[in-house]
Amino acid sequence: xxxxxxxxxxxxxxxxxxxxxxxxxxxxxxxxxxxxxxxxxxxxxxxxxxxxxxxxxxxxxxxxxxxxxxxxxxxxxxxxxxxxxxxxxxxxxxxxxxxxxxxxxxxxxxxxxxxxxxxxxxxxxxxxxxxxxxxxxxxxxxxxxxxxxxxxxxxxxxxxxxxxxxxxxxxxxxxxxxxxxxxxxxxxxxxxxxxxxxxxxxxxxxxxxxxxxxxxxxxxxxxxxxxxxxxxxxxxxxxxxxxxxxxxxxxxxxxxxxxxxxxxxxxxxxxxxxxxxxxxxxxxxxxxxxxxxxxxxxxxxxxxxxxxxxxxxxxxxxxxxxxxxxxxxxxxxxxxxxx
Length: 339
Ligand code: NAD
Description:
The protein is α/β, with parallel strands linked by helices. The chain contains 12 helices and 15 strands. Helix 1 packs across helix 11 and helix 11 (307-317) crosses helix 12 (324-335).
C-alpha cells in the first residue's frame, strides 16, 4: 500500500514536492490544489497530477482556461492519507482546521510558526521525533541547512558555541515584486529568527544567528564559526565528516566552483528535480580550523533543499522506514542523488 499524498499549494515548494513524491516507491500523488489557472496548473495537468480547486478559487475559472478539475480541496482530502501544505506563509495555519475536519495528517512548511505542528523536523537532525505523528513542520530552507550541519558536527565533537551569519537571497527567481535589487539590508533582530528555529530541532544548542539580505535570487550563503567542545585533529577531519554525510556536496578547488552561480550551473547541468541543489553545498577550500574553532561556508538552494525533508517526514509519520538513514537513502536514491 502506497501512502496517498495531497499537495495543497503548488508553487515553488509544492511543485517540487509533488515531483519528488511521484518518484518514491512507497507513496503517490493523489492530487494537487491550485486557487486559479496558471502555467503551473497546466504543468500539474501535464504531469498527470489531478487538479483540485482550493482557497477562493472557482472551477468555472479553470473551465474557462480549458483545465479540467477533479473537485475541491475537501474532495481531495477525503481520498488522502496526508496533505503536504505548501501554501504561502501563515496560510498553512488557517488550513490546519480543514485538515483536522477531514481527519487527515498534515505536513507544514517553515513559513508557519512551530506551534502549527506537534514537532519540527529535519531528517538528519531528529527523524525519530516525527515517527507516528499527525502534524509535522518541515523547517525552513535556512534552518534545514544549519540543522544538517549541526547533525554532522554535534555528535562527533560537541558544540560550545555556534555563530552563523546568513547572507540571504532577496527573492526566488520567479518573484518579481520582492527586493532589494540594490543594497545590503541587515536584519535588526538579534538573534535572527533562524537561531531559535534551529533549537526546535536541537533544543539547548548554543547558537546565535545574524542575517543580511542581498540582491541575488540563486541561493543563501551561511558563514559559520563553530567553537567545538573537542578539537578535531585537523581540517581534514572536518572535511571527511561532511563528505561522509548524505545531503552534503563538497566542491574541490579543481572544479572551479567560485560561488553560487557555478553551484547552480552545476545543478542545472546535473538535471535533478527542476535543476535543483538538494544538498548543502560546501567548498573544500572554505572549511578551516583554528584550534577548536571550525569555520565553513555553505550555500543553500532555498527552492529545493527542503524537498527531500518533506519526503522523509512522510516516511517518519507513517513509519515506512526503520530510521532516518534508511529513509534518507531511499529518498536520495529515488531523487537520483545516489546510485
Ligand atoms: P509560493 O508562493 O511559491 O507557492 C505557494 C502556492 O500556494 C502558490 O501557487 C499560491 O497560489 C498557492 N496558494 C495560495 N493560497 C492558497 C490556498 N489557500 N490554497 C491552496 N493554494 C494556495 O510559496 P513557496 O515559496 O512555495 O512557499 C511555501 C511554503 O514553503 C512557505 O511556508 C514558505 O515559507 C516555505 N518555504 C519556502 C522556501 C522558498 O525559498 N521559496 C524555502 C523553504 C520553505
